[in-house]
Amino acid sequence: MIASLVFGALTGLGVYAVVRVFVAPRPGLATVLTRIETGQRSMSTHTTTGLESGGMAGRAQSFMARLGDRIEVLATERGWELGKVRTDLALMGRTVGAHLATKVVAGLGLFLLAPFIWGIMRLFAIPLPATIPAFAALAFGVLGFFLPDLAVRSEAEARRRDFRRTVGIFLDLVAMNLAGGRGLPEALLAASTVSDHWSLIRIRQALANARLFGTTPWVALGELGREIGVEELTDLSGALSLAADDGAKIKASLSARAATMRRKELTQAEGDEGEKSQSMLVAQMLISTAFLVFLAFPAVAQLLKA
């Protein structure tokens, strides 16, 4: 009885979610404006290649794109901010709709895994109570739903550390260009063009957009820092704004800021290495203890028998 109620409730919830996702809601004007301002995928142009237009992979990609767009509309209408997840997705250049679609598909796939295994076991006449696959399906579904968040958070932290290192190098390059007699906007743009690393490309795009929209480069850097969650870039924007408004000497300030960032990165790297060394020490102690127990077990067993 309990298993029937659980399966019926989960089935009804799944049917409601599928119907709610695939019945496309009509977005209002505020929703469309929000999607334009935040640069969501459904409002951006995309050229379909020959590889994407056919085959199983192309159909799966098209299905995920449509599913992501509709979930994105639903999330925007409901006012789901997503907070830290949105910042991490912006850092990695992914859309909220694609991430939510991945969460739904992963959760549904793992949810169906337990009943599938239970059906195979029943096919081979292996007895198993129905309540076990019911609770296992629920646990797998929750795990699959939150697993993409954990993956995004881990990858975003690694890329954010990489971006901070790039900001330190970028500051040194800007200081060198200022020492060469260039103005501050020209020095920023020249420093961002020395490499095609993904972080410098993001900075270069922000500076190019600032020129197109008629804003100052330091304002664009500050907006980029807030968008991707890099505080060093936001602090740099404030320092450059003060230098532009008050005429402060910025070259020495940028060099000192770059040196401070390098010392901070070095300290963090030393802390990480020390933590890894401690972990290795604990592992070695556990292995040594297990080996000593293995050697002493026969003697202790004989003493206990005696």
From TrEMBL:
Membrane topology note: Multi-pass membrane protein
Subcellular location: Cell membrane
Any one GO cellular component localisation term in the record: plasma membrane
Keywords: Cell membrane, Membrane, Transmembrane, Transmembrane helix
Record carries keyword Cell inner membrane: no
Superkingdom of source: Bacteria
Record InterPro entries: T2SS_GspF_dom
Residue ranges occupied by any Type II secretion system protein GspF domain in the UniProt entry: 170-297
Claim: DNA-binding is one of the keywords in the record: no
Transmembrane segments: 6-23, 104-126, 132-152, 285-304
Pfam families attached to this UniProt entry: T2SSF (PF00482)
PANTHER family, per the entry: INTEGRAL MEMBRANE PROTEIN-RELATED (PTHR35007), PILUS ASSEMBLY PROTEIN (PTHR35007:SF1)
Protein name (record): Type II secretion system protein
Lineage: Bacteria, Bacillati, Actinomycetota, Actinomycetes, Micrococcales
